Amino acid sequence: MKPLDGFRVLDLTRFLSGPYCTMVLAELGADVVKVEQPGTGDDSRRLAPKVNGESYPFGMPNRSKRSVSLDLKDPRGRDAFLRMAARADLVIENFRPGVVGRLGIDYESVREVNPAVLYCSISGFGQTGPYRDRPGFDIMAQGAVGLLRMTGHPDGRPAKVGIAVNDIAAGATAIYSILAAELKRRATREGEYIDISLVDAGLAWTVWESGAYFGSGEAPAPTGTRHRRSTPYQAYRTADGYVTIGANNDRLWRRLVLDALDRPAWLDDDRFATLQARMDHIDELESEIEAITTTRPTAEWIEVLDKAGVPGGPVLTYEEALADPHVIARGMITEVEHPIIGPMRTIAPPAKFGSLEFDVRGPAPWLGQHTSDVLADAGLSGEEIASLYADGVAFDEHPEMHGR
């Protein structure tokens, strides 16, 4: 049994923030029905690479779900959606503010047919405030919260975080907000509206940076791989690449100096004797450390650091990370069978429970794969469903695949 078994979700989201949230809910047991526009579906379905016409990137955050394809601009499509929503526990969308209202599927409209529903909206800037109507993707959110100005190397151009961090932050924020609202709903039988913003979610993750700014007015600037408050804590060059070292307290500093780098004189060197002194002379410290680390390859330094009890590790490419034996041993790569693509590798859920089930339930659906089943479950007759298909209001991209 999974913790969200029986929890029904109508997922109107696209791209990454919402689909990441609903992927996690699905793999915790929720029945997630992805509602998509006929013909095109989620915009991320166009992303390459494609295998047999299906987008591989789309398959990552949309696995474990079902797909219904309805034209919500058509009154019959909207009515069919509301009949589905009457039986849902959660409706989640990430349109620009105002769009769901114009479509007649906003929180107030859904609440009329389902007073206890949970309704979550994810947008770039939120449902209120002077920027609410601005379109906002991850890159705009990274710029709006200062991440582009604190990532990268000093004196470099603004740099994007390597992943869509604000999208994932918003998706993660939505996950715990929905679970909190569901706990309340189970106790009170009351629904809830949840407003999630990419900007708010990303800003909430600036924990150390906000502490420094509110405490002393320090604005975070790019530091490369360095920590803002401690050193040594960064990647250092080796003979064949880089090694990360995290000797960020006095105990680990002593181990690094005495047992790994064999530089006991640094303990009495005024430049490095205290944490503040090391921060004040961080450039000199980097040069001194790299004069040593560049004499041996990364793998040897990891052995030395492990023996000394100092945290350290390699700086891998993504390809190397996926092939790492520890990643493999932890079961972080799994495989699903897609009906069109065939075997697909994907990243597995990261949490490891003692007995609770949390795993990939299946591949991402093709566009409209479950339209007939879900509409029938919502109470539409066979004649009504056939009429919706005939008029292009409902859609199934591969009707010939059913029954194979």
TrEMBL record:
GO MF assignments: CoA-transferase activity
Region (Disordered): 39-68
InterPro entries: CoA-transferase_III_domain, CoA-Trfase_fam_III, CoA-Trfase_III_dom3_sf, CoA-Trfase_III_dom_1_sf
Keywords, alphabetical: Transferase
Keyword Transmembrane helix part of the UniProt annotation: no
Pfam families (UniProt xref): CoA_transf_3 (PF02515)
SUPFAM superfamilies, A to Z: CoA-transferase family III (CaiB/BaiF)
Descriptive protein name: Crotonobetainyl-CoA:carnitine CoA-transferase CaiB-like acyl-CoA transferase
Annotated organism of origin: Spinactinospora alkalitolerans
Native organism taxonomy: Bacteria, Bacillati, Actinomycetota, Actinomycetes, Streptosporangiales
